[in-house]
Design brief:
By secondary structure, the chain is of the alpha+beta class. It has 7 helices and 12 strands.
């Protein structure tokens, strides 16, 4: 089985005639028709050759004037126009201002047409690129909340905002059917794939997680989006997670797990601190010779100090009127 390598379109920039130069030319051509009529009216009775010449001049001036009149277009900063002549790509105009180009350059269909299996033609939504104009400005794609599974199979909800812009107008217009829809679908697909590579917040030791490794996850998302969207001539400037949470059906269970982990971590810290304080107290008593403690009394004191330091409720003193051995 043989496979053919796909050839991608490549943009090349071209110039257009200044619109302010062609505007007086168009006005003169359109004025030529009435001048022919005036000349014909003022020279009535002339030969048939003069009449035919005036009529031919009238038709010629009007047609040329109309031809040039439909070639004007304007481009705002960070806007481009793709020039297509009879199905062939001729280049892209990126310079902003008032321009003139061949009126036969394609303006693109005003609506998309879909042919159903029954043979009926359905008109779709109006095209977003009138006269083949494309915005080169940065755009935001605020994605919807997606319900996906993380690396461990836990259902989570995630959403991201993506800043993107068109970099290659030829690829955006000719290599994909609708580059804006392509960006939306591929962004959702990339985000789903990213979630399958990382755990939400509890992974292996030193493992990057969605919750703990925000910078690393964001960088991975930008790289994957850049690779996917390059086929449509789109560059990704930035991507950030805007929502990250467990799915509602397991949110309470995971919350209890997080609370238990927090309690364990807090208890561990308290015990470590209490042991250090008990050791410091016993050493201080021994070094200052405040009281002589045999091993049994040291154990009792250590036990009492640990109860006082680790207990949650307020301690109550107990007065011992006897001795430890009584």
């Amino acid at each position: 089985m043989t496979t053919t390598e796909r050839t991608y379109s490549r943009e090349h920039e071209v110039g257009a005639l200044p619109g302010w130069l062609m505007l007086p030319v168009t006005m003169l051509l359109l004025a030529g028709g009435p001048l022919c009529i005036v000349y014909l009216a003022s020279h009535q009775g002339q030969g048939g050759g003069v009449v035919l010449a005036c009529i031919g001049g009238l038709v010629g001036f009007v047609l040329l004037g109309l031809y040039t009149a439909f070639g004007f277009f304007t481009l705002q900063p960070n806007q481009a126009r793709v020039l297509v002549l009879f199905g062939a790509y001729r280049g892209t105009v990126r310079a902003n201002g008032f321009h003139w180009a061949n009126p036969f350059y394609s303006n693109g269909p005003s609506r998309t047409m879909t042919l159903s299996p029954k043979g009926t033609v359905t008109l779709g939504e109006p095209k977003r690129n009138p006269r083949m104009k494309i915005s080169l400005r940065a755009r935001n794609l605020n994605g919807d909340k997606l319900k996906v599974n993380d690396k461990q199979g836990n259902p989570i909800e995630i959403a991201a905002v993506i800043v993107w812009r068109v970099e290659d107008t030829a690829q955006a217009m000719f290599d994909v059917d609708d580059y804006e829809e392509y960006v939306r679908l591929q962004s959702e697909s990339a985000l789903r794939h990213l979630c399958s590579l990382y755990s939400y917040d509890h992974g292996e030791q030193a493992e990057i997680t969605l919750r703990g490794g925000a910078d690393e996850v964001t960088q991975a998302l930008v790289e994957e989006l850049g690779e996917r969207l390059a086929k449509a001539g789109v560059a990704v400037d930035e991507a950030r997670l805007t929502h990250l949470a467990y799915a509602p059906e397991i949110a309470q269970t995971m919350l209890r797990r997080q609370q238990a982990q927090a309690v364990i971590a807090a208890r561990t810290l308290i015990v470590q601190g209490a042991v250090s304080m008990v050791d410091m107290a016993l050493k201080s008593l021994t070094e200052r010779q405040v009281v002589e403690l045999d091993p049994e009394r040291r154990a009792a004191m250590a036990s009492n100090l640990l109860v006082v330091l680790c207990g949650e409720s307020e301690t109550k003193p107990v007065i011992n009127t006897g001795t430890l051995y009584a």
